[in-house]
Amino acid sequence: MRSGNPVLSDNTFLDLGSGTVVRRADGAMTLNGTVNKTAMLLVLALAGALFSWSRFDAAMATGTPGAIMPLVWIGVLGGFVVALVTVFKKTWAPFTAPIYAVLEGLFLGAVSAMFELRFPGIVMQAVGLTFATLAALLLAYRSGLVKASENFKLGVVAATGGIALLYLVQMGLNLFGFTGMQFITASSPIGIAFSGFVVVIAALNLVLDFDFIEQGVDQGAPKYMEWYAAFGLLVTLVWLYLEMLRLLSKLQSRN
Questions:
Q1: Least confident of 51-55, 93-97, 112-116, 177-181
Q2: 34, 217 Cβ separation under 8 angstroms
Q3: Of 225, 222, 226, residue with least CA distance to 23
Q4: According to DSSP H, which parts of the chain are helical?
Q5: CA spacing 20 to 30 A to 115: which of 68, 88, 99, 252?
Q6: Residue 14 confidence (pLDDT) above 70
């Protein structure tokens, strides 16, 4: 099983000692259970986002926009740490996945409010496009129009890794004051094309995630993997939403 999602790797369901699917006496992973857990995480992320958005509005009303930054950093750094813990301690997913969702919500709410302030209406557009993409790809996957073949998986994984490496290089260059890769953030035709490409790759990762979850269900993975699979799907949705925001902001900047 392969997924471009870094938290859903090819050995997620396997015991590292025996190489076999881990099974527990407390029940097996189900599709309905995974869907329910995903919905719960989305609600928690929304709650966190609404809170940080309200804090942003309050900070703007008092003329202290910098007051929101602690929430942003709590969301970014806290979410990263909790995500790492979840990846390495999958059995903790029923506890860490909800915490991750709230922390990501704090970050997304503040970032979304900043985008909305500059580009009114952009957040609802990004949210709508993200969930429309999720629904369309799920329908295409369930109907068999899109299949996660090995070549398809290899292509998406390679593209995802390339994008991650490119972002890391950009961050490193910016840290030392170099601006040679500004096409990533620019509103030029090249910048828009790049963002469009990243959105497509992020969306295709959803197909790999669907396939990965389905295989976990078929193999009778343990019950806690419902939370872990929901966590992995949330990671992809967060990435897709942020890339949608980036692409829409570039398009609106050219108007």
A1: 177-181
A2: yes
A3: 222
A4: 31-61, 69-88, 93-118, 122-143, 150-175, 189-218, 225-253
A5: 99
A6: no
